[in-house]
Design goal:
Number of strands: 4
Helix content: 40-55%
Number of helices: 10
Strand order of the largest sheet: 2-1-3-4
Structural class: alpha+beta
CATH topology: Glutaredoxin
CATH architecture: 3-Layer(aba) Sandwich
Number of domains: 1
CATH class: Alpha Beta
Length: about 200
């Protein structure tokens, strides 16, 4: 039983999903496939050059209050970043170039904490290096691999695949051909995987 977790490092609602999907999936015997992608190209196709939470201020205000409620309920720390959305290109390339490594879920959670707790610039190689080093990884080697044409092409292909599969926002969960969108659909997606 597998669930594909499609996430974007700049996505607010992907943060609580990333923090809880591992334990929830393990408790149900479901394997998580971590699939980073970029929302920018998807938003551009819809005529947006920014996050809809910035384009529509009322929607943005609601989202930040909703995030406060979600994180409080799930006992997850939250600090609104001074820059939103942040560029998650580098950490997404790291995950794409090392997708099969056991440390990837911990790295993803570390990057989300850097962005939504520490208010750190996750596009900075120094910040990504700190996340990797804290996990006992060879940050220099991993960062070098993540800058190769192969890593860049993998992320491009993954973003194109997301669009082809009808993914329009993050987080999204895919079980077989079924698409579930939003942090609040995680339990539904896991239940579907168990069917």
């Amino acid at each position: 039983m597998k669930i594909e977790f499609w996430f974007e490092f700049a996505s607010t609602y992907s943060y609580p999903a990333a923090m809880r999907i591992g334990a929830l999936a393990a408790s149900r015997g479901v394997q998580v496939v971590w699939r980073p992608f970029l929302l920018g190209p998807i938003f551009n196709r819809q005529g947006w050059n920014d996050s809809p939470f910035n384009i529509y201020p009322a929607k943005g205000r609601y989202m930040w209050r909703d995030m406060e409620r979600i994180c409080e309920r799930q006992d997850i720390p939250l600090r609104k970043p001074t820059v939103f959305p942040r560029n998650g290109l580098l950490p997404a390339r790291v995950v794409c170039s090392h997708a099969q490594q056991a440390w990837v879920p911990d790295f993803v959670r570390a990057v989300y904490r850097a962005n939504f707790v520490d208010d750190a610039d996750i596009s900075s190689p120094a910040v990504v290096e700190q996340c990797l080093t804290a996990l006992g990884q060879d940050a220099a080697a991993i960062l070098a691999t993540s800058q190769t044409p192969t890593a860049k092409d993998t992320l491009k292909a993954q973003t194109a695949e997301a669009m082809e599969r009808g993914i329009f926002g993050a987080p999204s969960f895919v079980v077989g051909d079924e698409l579930f969108w939003g942090n609040d659909r995680l339990e539904d997606a896991l239940a579907w995987a168990q069917r």
